[in-house]
Design goal:
This protein is of the alpha/beta class. The chain has 10 helices and 15 strands. It has helices at residues 3-17, 22-29, 33-45, 68-73, 76-87, 102-111, 124-130, 155-161, 187-198, 237-245; strands at 19-21, 50-52, 55-57, 95-98, 118-121, 137-140, 144-146, 151-153, 166-171, 175-176, 181-184, 200-206, 218-222, 228-230, 249-251. The strands form 4 sheets. It has a 7-stranded parallel β-sheet with strand order 6-5-4-9-12-14-15, sandwiched between helices. A 3-stranded antiparallel β-sheet has the order 1-3-2. A hairpin with a 4-residue loop joins strand 7 and strand 8. The longest helix has 15 residues, at 3-17. It is elongated. It starts with a helix and ends with a strand.
Length: 253
């Protein structure tokens, strides 16, 4: 296949899925990994994609997240798979923190198959999704509503979270560094997520393959603070070793 046709194919897959791996592209284009790496490097040099370890994703900076509507659309199938697998581990009657994010919103939709849940969240979309259930107790944190995605942030939000101790924290992040650092874009959102982690008995991180190696400016915490991670594709061997060293359980669909 000619180079320009490969590049068009790569751009289309990145736009549709949010992130593609080198292995995926090798299979779909029937070329060598070396060819794909050269293509990805060239496209990144042209500012058409963002190059990550093991693949490529949407073009973006480390200081600003992509638009909410784009994040909601990209990788939706992967998010559904992650959500279904995670909710398999949530029992009826549980108390749960849920933070901001399109993946955690997918989890909220899947949670509707559980009974008698208590939910504490700073995500308007999560609260709206779950409020249709009369057997659920929904507690929505107060604070400043971030218009672009319905997230609630600020000191009042942190204060409310700290009043509770939940069975589970279901959290999403914007990026996971290769050394296991959890990253996000908004320090106010990070403070809420940190409070959620500190006040949960078990922390469940949901992150699709695009989050591995993705850069963001604000440090949320480390993988050592997580009990289990739910993702759609097995991460690199190095990252699996990191999970094992920190006692984090890896869960795949």
């Amino acid at each position: 296949m000619r180079q320009h046709l490969r590049h068009d194919h790569i751009i289309e897959k990145v736009m549709a899925e949010g992130f593609v791996t080198i292995d995926d592209l090798v299979t779909s284009l029937n070329v060598t990994p070396q060819t794909i790496r050269r293509d990805l490097n060239l496209l990144a040099d042209q500012n058409r994609i963002s190059r990550y370890h093991g693949g490529a994703g949407l073009l973006e900076s480390s200081t600003e997240n992509t638009a909410y509507t784009n994040r909601l659309k990209h990788g939706s199938k992967a998010k559904q798979l992650i959500a279904k697998r995670l909710v398999d581990d949530i029992p009826d009657g549980a108390s749960i923190f849920i933070n901001i994010g399109t993946t955690t919103e997918a989890v909220a939709r899947e949670l509707l198959r559980r009974k008698n849940l208590s939910i504490i969240t700073n995500n308007l979309h999560v609260a709206a999704t779950l409020s249709e259930r009369e057997d659920y107790r929904i507690i929505l944190a107060g604070g400043e509503v971030r218009a672009r995605d319905g997230g609630i942030i600020g000191e009042a939000t942190v204060d409310l979270i700290r009043q509770f101790q939940a069975d589970f924290a279901i959290i999403g992040v914007s990026g996971i560094d290769e050394n296991g650092t959890l990253l996000d874009f908004d320090y106010r959102e990070v403070r809420v997520s940190q409070a959620i982690i500190e006040n949960a008995r078990q922390v469940m991180l949901c992150a699709d393959k695009s989050k591995f190696g993705r850069n963001a400016m604000v440090r949320l915490g480390t993988i050592a603070q997580i009990d289990s991670i739910y993702t759609d594709v097995k991460p690199s061997d190095e990252f699996v070793t990191l999970l094992n060293d920190n006692g984090v359980k890896l869960n795949l669909p």
